[in-house]
Write a structure and sequence with these properties.
Radius of gyration: 32 Å
Structural class: alpha+beta
Order of helices and strands: HHEEEEEEEEEEEEE
Strand content: 25-35%
CATH architecture of the domain at 58-197: Trefoil
Distance between the termini: 99 Å
Largest sheet: 7 strands, antiparallel
Oligomer: single chain
Helix content: 10-25%
């Protein structure tokens, strides 16, 4: 009888000394080291991803030559704020499609002069003067549009401090009720644009 009592007592003491295994707070699994979006490491990764995705900048930020851009008009036509070249070379506000070649412009230098190179090409049915030539954004005295980069009597347009301005002082002033880009020839009222860096689409 004493032996049975001693064995029972030993078993009870042994059971009390065993601690239950805990798997982490709030009933979590053993995969506590797996990133779940709430750890500092994940936040750092998200921040770097956001920085990489946020390529839009104001005009006061220097843009490297030959970096293709899409231009976004601040206060443009809602849902259609990006500058787009029509088949006839006119510039209008349209939906922002960064991969579309008719939205793309590349700041560069030509014969020592800063210009905005138009990425898209043109056909003889609309602009025979732009077939097989390089087009730039130019001011012909009336409108900003695609012009032959080697044409005479054209003021080239550049992008500075968020504004599109011609060499003679005229600036893009916004858009009309047909979403066509308008020009203030005196350069007093200028629209503001931001840009997004994109990979140039091959024509």
């Amino acid at each position: 009888m004493k032996l049975l009592f001693i064995l029972s007592l030993a078993a009870a003491v042994s059971a009390m000394s065993i601690r239950p295994r805990q798997s982490g707070g709030n009933g979590g699994s053993n995969n506590d080291c797996v990133a779940d979006g709430n750890t500092p490491q994940d936040d750092a990764n998200n921040d770097s991803d956001n920085a990489a995705d946020d390529t839009t900048n104001g005009g006061d930020v220097a843009v490297a030559d030959d970096q293709t851009l899409v231009f976004f008009e601040i206060g443009g036509v809602p849902g259609n704020e990006c500058l787009t070249f029509r088949n006839n070379g006119e510039i209008v506000d349209a939906a922002c499609v960064n991969e579309a070649i008719d939205r793309q412009i590349t700041p560069t230098s030509l014969n020592g002069q800063d210009v905005l190179r138009v990425q898209r090409t043109f056909t003889a049915g609309f602009r025979p003067d732009l077939v097989d030539v390089q087009a730039c954004v130019g001011f012909n005295g009336t409108a900003f549009r695609a012009e032959d980069c080697n044409a005479q009597g054209i003021e080239f347009v550049t992008f500075n401090n968020g504004q599109l301005t011609a060499s003679g002082g005229a600036c893009a002033s916004g858009h009309d009720d047909l979403a066509q880009v308008t020009v203030d020839t005196a350069g007093n009222t200028c629209a503001t644009y931001t840009t997004t860096e994109v990979d140039a689409t091959v024509a």
